[in-house]
């Protein structure tokens, strides 16, 4: 069957999906996807997967994609981050039988993406992106899609989208923020950019950004003309967002925990989900926040949810007639609802002019954290400091690793070629050389094999001698497998 493209792909394979759950690192796992699908989501993405790790690590593949078969978890798009065409395509080939499309992440703005050179930090490298998408479009049996962030300039964003379409992208998700708009600096997403992209390309477009409730979804589709709308934060705080409902927080938690019992995932994922679901309630019941942070088992989390339910029900029973939600919330804290992040200006007002009013300080800069001042260290680093008072977080004191001459990975300290083990092995095998530092003895083993061959030929018939010469090359190859 030929591979579907563009509108046909969206209409037939993705079943004309309008309501989409975003790819979220450690948060859009199978259990959460199933919960979201039960409550209106029509298409889900896997968490962002590292192509290189997926390619080399069978456990990573099993934990993130090859687990229990779940027919109701379709249509599904697997998202990878990558910066090498071959690695990306080889990883995608291993995933394509378990999904309906492969997505290339070009939208992650986090520091880890900058260090790893992927996500939104590839958006200026158009030649590389063209090669990645062209190769994927040629080799894969499923369509290739992309998720991008916008440039400040609308015209450049449009040209960027058109370049991806021309390379072979069959569906484009546009997050209407730049890579600099993240965390406390996020601000509002630009639907104007998304609308411009939608008009300029002939492939389906999904919008991402400013989605907190179903009315936002409908307004976004009306204003931008996109085929579907993707939600991340809004979905995490209210998995029934696409149903247009605002259920009780403990009901959603109970349903999610039941799914987790059938489709297990790491406890850290579960805890993170409940911190989002219970965000407003945990502002009221601080003790439950601490209990959720400390609990070590799924059964313990179920108990915390039961306690939260009892406290909220007691509060509802004692509620006075006509009482309104506090803290300016649209609903009472026990109801699933969006969390609106304060913008930069609002955050400054909350924290005082210098960001230190009432003991609350603004976000630490990287330099403040790493200068060794314990008052400015994160809580995690302060705990490490307590365990080891001599530990220093000063980056200038960290050991500097010499890089491999070939690939840039840390080289072996005693390598005769100044390379990492992988590169050293290739070169030593090619040159039939030894590297004692990496315990690679190609030359030694080859010489031993020759010596053994010569010793045997003295007692062999002519036919056996010829066979020995033929086997000599085989021995050399086996020496390369050490």
Q: Please, could you describe this protein's structure?
A:
This protein has about 475 residues and is an alpha/beta fold. It has 3 domains: about 5-245, TIM Barrel, CATH 3.20.20; about 245-320 and about 330-340; about 400-450, no CATH class. It has 22 helices and 11 strands. The protein has helices spanning about 5-15, 30-40, 50-55, 60-65, 85-95, 110-115, 125-140, 155-165, 190-200, 215-225, 235, 250-260, 265-275, 280-285, 285-295, 300-315, 345-350, 365-370, 380-385, 420-430, 440-455, 460-480, and strands at about 20, 45, 50, 75-80, 100-105, 145-150, 170-175, 205-210, 230, 435, 440. Strands 1-2-4-5-6-7-8-9 form an 8-stranded parallel β-barrel, surrounded by 6 helices. Strands 10-11 form a two-stranded antiparallel sheet. Helix 5 packs parallel to helix 7 (about 125-140), helix 8 crosses helix 9 (about 190-200) and helix 21 (about 440-455) runs antiparallel to helix 22. It comes from Smithornis capensis.
Number of strands: 11
Described by the principal axes of the CA atoms, the overall outline is: globular
- Main sheet attributes: strand count, strand direction, barrel closure: 8 strands, parallel, barrel
**SS field, number of helical segments:** 22
* Average of per-residue pLDDT values: 87
The H-level CATH homologous superfamily of the largest domain, spelled out, is Aldolase class I
- Total separate domains: 3
> What is the annotated CATH architecture of the largest domain?
Alpha-Beta Barrel
CATH fold assignment of the largest domain: TIM Barrel
Report the radius of gyration as a whole number of Å. 28 Å
- Which percent range describes the beta-strand content? 5-15%
